[in-house]
């Protein structure tokens, strides 16, 4: 468990010591996702990476696709995914022990009728015959590229241009771009990371993004820049305790009394930066209010 996560869950007072790694550099963090009612939550979607998109080399009347194993390793004994299938030469096959089909029978029949099931000769596939012998076929299904999105990886990319989420250093540079070389806030999240989460859950025009631990207002910048990119009208609500800036820190020396003042100034600077870059005033209309 990371020191940051431990402190959040148990409190800094319970944290006796932080063990610094001697042999590896820590370059990852964990993101915990919660939903008040998971039933009402849509699936998460993220752009398919450029490297993954290259695997979609085939084309038919439906669209661009790649062939995917129809039979895969799974210890499930569910007979709904272990039925007999008749191959092109009449050979009846089913998965070996430890394997199941990707679809139940009804879905398979529909895919077969739609010509999205592919049979290929194979002497080493995961299928057996009625006699328990190695089958002479393997089965594949067409997986279509569609809108170019899929379930996000558990390891978010930092180099892939389609799934760029940045690193700790990226968060530092985001602030340096606005405040100069002044190290005004530590541990700021990268703007691209928040924008990625917004895309992942489908935050769109007129939605409101709520951040209850807003810190340096990274979420506000992410929302504003997303609006600038697509002309959206997303809004944000930030909540942050007015924690005082410690004495003799760059923030206090720059005249900021608490974290909230840093966040408000960041919002002002982002608005000016975007307006000057895009010659656009829509994204900053109404300004920002603090309470």
UniProtKB/TrEMBL annotation:
Coiled coil: none annotated. Residues 22-244 form the DNA methylase N-4/N-6 domain. Keywords: Methyltransferase, Transferase. GO terms for biological process: methylation. SUPFAM superfamilies: S-adenosyl-L-methionine-dependent methyltransferases (SSF53335). GO terms for molecular function: DNA binding; N-methyltransferase activity. Pfam families: N6_N4_Mtase. InterPro entries: DNA_methylase_N4/N6, SAM-dependent_MTases_sf. The keyword Methyltransferase applies. This is DNA methylase N-4/N-6 domain-containing protein. It comes from Candidatus Anaerobiospirillum pullistercoris.
